[in-house]
Amino acid sequence: MRALCSHRAAKERCTSATPEPVDRGEYRTSAGPSTSTDRRSQVSGDPWSVTPTRDPRAVHAVEVHEHLVRLFGSLWALADPELLELSRIRMAQLLGNRSEVACRAHGVPDPPSAKLEHLSNWPTASVFSESERLHLSLTEQFVVDVSGIDPSSAHAVAASSQSSVGALLTALYLLDYGMRSQMVLERLFPENQVLVITGVAACSGGSARSGEDLDGLLRATARLEELDAVTSELIRLRGARVHSCRICKSIRSVAALEAGADEALFDCIDDYEHRNVSERHKVALRLTDAMVTRPAEITDALVEQVRSHFSPRQAVELVADVMRNSCQKVAVALGADAAHVEDGTEHFTLVDGDVVFLGAAATE
User: Fold this and answer.
1) Alpha-carbon distance 202 to 259, whole Å?
2) CATH entry 1.10.3470 includes domain 27-35+54-222
3) pLDDT by residue (tens digit) across 326-339?
4) Stated pTM of the model
5) Is the CB of residue 18 less than 8 Å from the CB of residue 70?
6) pLDDT tens, 283-317?
7) 84: how many CB neighbours lie within 10 A of its CB?
8) 229-360 has CATH 1.20.1290.10 classification
9) What is the location of CATH 1.20.1290.10 in the chain?
């Protein structure tokens, strides 16, 4: 079975070549343009110093980065690109991603200025069509609380724009977590340039390439091995509870259990700040919470905590894991996240990036 809660939105093959980054802000640093005299790169032995002109994922998770570049180009073929661009900008507003609010997707028509001016007031602004209102309503619910989406409403929104509901939700996921990942990495690596959605030329054609690359992204992320199994399981379960993914909440990693995790530890997740959880795990959960809720509010203190408890490669994997796990939002929005077991939990393992379910856990 493929990576957990993944959704293949693939029907047609993209006819263009692999998207190439364009000179429109593909990489950005929160500290301004990088130079050959970059201060951090001059500090010998600093493990957080990577090539300033490169996304940290291009250094520490190469295959993940390659899939993201292609996905950021091909996602526009999953639904009406003009509606997706409105969604992207609205998401940027909601997430507090001011730089992406100002940018425009390369190869996608710019929204009319009147719609941009009134985008934050779309429910009452007369410049938006009924289809656009439906689309923006779904976008906001997807970003803020995906569990509140009625699957029949999602189908109706997709039908209003003649899109596949699975493909539309996959595009929203890529826009949502593409930006969340960017914002977190820009805080953790402020002097490095991070890949942004608007910096990859849109790929014309169909959505098959997106389906293949999404599956590849999820599997490549699952194959990363710098994080220990217990930390990976804690952040997975935290995201599952925030997004109310039923199957994700019901399963347990065999690797984490074999490494010493148990239900007593998992029961601490919801109130981890006040429970018997190691500081390292608390830091991982804090970063997870920030990424899945308010990435613009990551504090300097949290950045320093992450740097103290994790290596750069581990931090990149943590961010990539949260993005991978959050593909569950597509299944939740579709109502396709039912657990395999009625009571108790189910064990799973990973085999070359694929999730393999092993059946219900034994009860004592």
Assistant:
1) 43
2) no
3) 999 999 999 999 99
4) 0.88
5) yes
6) 999 999 999 999 999 999 999 999 999 999 999 99
7) 26
8) yes
9) 229-360
